[in-house]
Amino acid sequence: MRAFEAMCHELNLVGWTATQGNRSSISSEVVTTDQMGGSIKKAQVGHVIISVAKTLQQKELKLATIAITKSRIGDDGIVFENCKFDNGMLEIDTESSVTFLGLEEQNDQKQREKVRELLERRKERDAQKKKNEEDKNNDKTEE
After folding, report:
1. Overall number of domains in the chain
2. What is the pTM of this model?
3. What whole-number distance in Å separates Cα of residue 81 and Cα of residue 96?
4. How many other C-beta atoms lie within 10 A of the C-beta of residue 101?
5. How far apart are CA 106 and CA 100, in angstroms?
6. Long-range contacts of 32-41 (CB under 8 A, 24+ apart)
7. Count of H-run helices and E-run strands, the chain
8. Backbone φ and ψ of 74, nearest 5°
9. pLDDT averaged over every residue in the chain
10. What is the phi-psi region of residue 62: left when phi exceeds 0, alpha when psi lies from -120 to 50, beta otherwise?
11. For 52-81, what is each residue's pLDDT tens digit?
């Protein structure tokens, strides 16, 4: 990476390269710098690090979550969810960004809502089961 940086500086060019994530990045909704494959020195040398993550649903819809995990030229820790992303185009909606902390809070809230929904469904199912048993008992007593 240092040689690549030196070459770009010598030729007065901007360089852009890619690296794969490690195993833990495969199932991540957002890929962070600690999930980069190989040496951490790549992250230390880089001036701007942008990660791309796709859930299975996002892959089907040609969407991705883009995160600016490091930036020496501006803000970092910014996440852009559901960006239009395929091999021919990338479109980032900068109006709907969130920080890493904000994304974590959103995910916690979504999890709480899922648990609440599951509990409500369980209560409804239990109430229906109880009603069915009461109806069954009432039918037996009428006989």
Report:
1. 1
2. 0.65
3. 8
4. 10
5. 10
6. 32/67, 32/69, 32/100, 33/69, 33/70, 41/1
7. 4, 5
8. -175, -160
9. 85
10. left
11. 998 888 889 999 899 999 999 988 989 998
Q: What's the CA gap between 134 and 124, in Å, rounded?
A: 15
Q: If pLDDT is split at 50, 70 and 90, which confidence band does 11 have?
A: very high
**Which H or E run contains 5?**
helix 2-10
Whole-number Cα distances in Å, 82 to 5, 23, 49, 57, 128: 31, 22, 19, 10, 39
Please give the residue range of the domain that contains residue 73. Answer: 2-142
Residue 103's CB is within 10 A of a number of other CB atoms, namely 19
Q: Which residue do the tokens 């969130």 mark?
A: 98
Residue 125 pLDDT > 70: yes
Question: How far is 34 from 32, CA to CA, in rounded Å?
Answer: 5
CB 68 within 8 A of CB 78: yes
